[in-house]
Amino acid sequence: MTTDQPSFCPVYQAIGVLQEKWVLHIVRSLLDGEKGFNELARAVGGCNSATLTQRLEHLETLDIIHKRTEDTHGKLARSIYSLSPAGLELQTVIDAIDTWGRAHLKFAVQKTA
To answer: Does residue 111 fall inside a structural domain?
Structure first.
């Protein structure tokens, strides 16, 4: 019996999420601890506000990050972002990318600079 639907592949699905522009930068930044939207935008660097908002909302629906709203006593509420337990598990992915990059890209970066 065959179906037109491909079977579930967790690697394919994970790459689909993690390859979106800015996602790994967001995760890497939040591994240092929770951040407000503006602090996160500065840490990520180069991502416009609309795209950052979209990525954060998507990561929240996937339960990779958590968002909480902090009351600032009469001012606009402040959004604080942190990694969920699933998001924290991406530390090993970031570490593996770091190790690979240090081993294989140090010369490539120097050649293009």
So the answer is: no
Q: Which residue has the tokens 């065959």?
A: 2
pLDDT tens for residues 19-35? Answer: 999 999 999 999 999 99
Residue 51 CA, distance from chain mean position: 12
Over residues 51-94, the pLDDT tens digits come to 999 999 999 999 999 999 988 777 788 899 999 999 999 999 99
Query: For the chain, what is the largest distance between any 2 Cα atoms, rounded to a whole number of angstroms?
Result: 62
Domain residues for the domain of 30 are 6-104
Q: Is residue 87 part of a domain?
A: yes
Q: Which residue has the tokens 């190790």?
A: 99
Q: Is this prediction's pTM over 0.85?
A: no
Contacts of 44 (CB under 8 A, 6+ apart): 22, 25, 26, 29, 52
CATH label of the domain that carries residue 88: 1.10.10.10
DSSP run (H or E) holding 2: none
Domain count of the fold of the chain: 1
Structure tokens at 102: 């240090």
